[in-house]
C-alpha cells in the first residue's frame, strides 16, 4: 500500500514538473523582444550631448563617462586626454553639456580631439 502511495506521489510531482516545463516552453504570441545595445556617443563636429553625469568608469588606462539624458537613456563617452582634463572639474550628479569641436594639431604634430564642457548652475 505504501508503494502505491509513493508511486502516486511521484506521478503527481512528475506531472507538476511536466506542466511547469510545458509552460516555459510555450511561446507567448504577445512577447516582444528588443535588442540590447551599448550606447556610446560617437560625435561629429558640433554635436552636443547633455545630461546628468551618473558614473565614471576607469577602463584600463581610459575613462568612460556615463551620462543619463533627459530621455533617461544612459550614454557612454570615451574619455580622451583633453576631455579628461575638463571632466576633472565635474562631479557625479552634475548636469553637463559636452560639445565636440573637431580635431586640432598638437605641438608634436598629433591630432587631439577638442571638446567644450559646460556645467549647469542653478541660481
Task: Give a description of the structure.
The chain is an alpha+beta fold. The protein has a domain at 48-119. Helix content is 25%, strand content 36%. The protein has a five-stranded antiparallel sheet.
Question: What's the quick description here?
Answer:
The chain is of the alpha+beta class and 123 residues long.
Q: Which properties best describe this structure?
A:
2 helices; five-stranded antiparallel beta sheet; alpha+beta; elongated; 123 residues; 25% helix
- Helix-strand sequence: HEEEHEE
- Radius of gyration, rounded? 27 Å
Q: Structural class of the helix and strand makeup?
A: alpha+beta
Indicate the mean pLDDT: 88
Strand portion, in percent? 35-45%
Give the strand line-up of the largest sheet. 3-2-1-4-5
- What characteristic shape results from the CA principal axes? elongated
Distance between the termini: 83 Å
Low-confidence stretches: none
The overall strand count is 5
Total number of helices: 2
Q: Summarize the amount of helix as a percent range.
A: 25-40%
Largest sheet: 5 strands, antiparallel
What does the secondary structure layout of this molecule look like, with pairings?
Elements: H1 2-25, E1 48-59, E2 62-68, E3 74-78, H2 81-87, E4 95-105, E5 111-119
Antiparallel strand pairs: 1-2, 1-4, 2-3, 4-5
Amino acid at each position: 500500500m505504501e508503494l502505491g502511495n509513493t508511486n502516486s506521489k511521484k506521478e503527481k510531482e512528475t506531472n507538476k514538473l511536466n506542466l511547469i516545463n510545458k509552460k516555459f516552453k510555450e511561446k507567448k504570441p504577445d512577447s516582444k523582444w528588443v535588442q540590447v545595445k551599448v550606447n556610446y556617443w560617437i560625435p561629429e563636429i558640433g554635436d552636443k550631448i547633455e545630461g546628468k553625469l551618473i558614473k565614471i568608469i576607469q577602463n584600463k588606462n581610459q575613462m568612460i563617462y556615463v551620462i543619463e539624458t533627459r530621455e533617461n537613456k544612459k550614454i557612454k563617452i570615451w574619455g580622451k586626454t583633453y576631455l579628461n582634463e575638463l571632466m576633472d572639474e565635474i562631479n557625479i550628479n552634475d548636469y553637463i553639456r559636452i560639445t565636440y569641436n573637431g580635431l586640432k594639431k598638437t605641438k608634436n604634430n598629433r591630432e587631439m580631439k577638442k571638446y567644450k564642457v559646460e556645467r549647469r548652475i542653478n541660481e
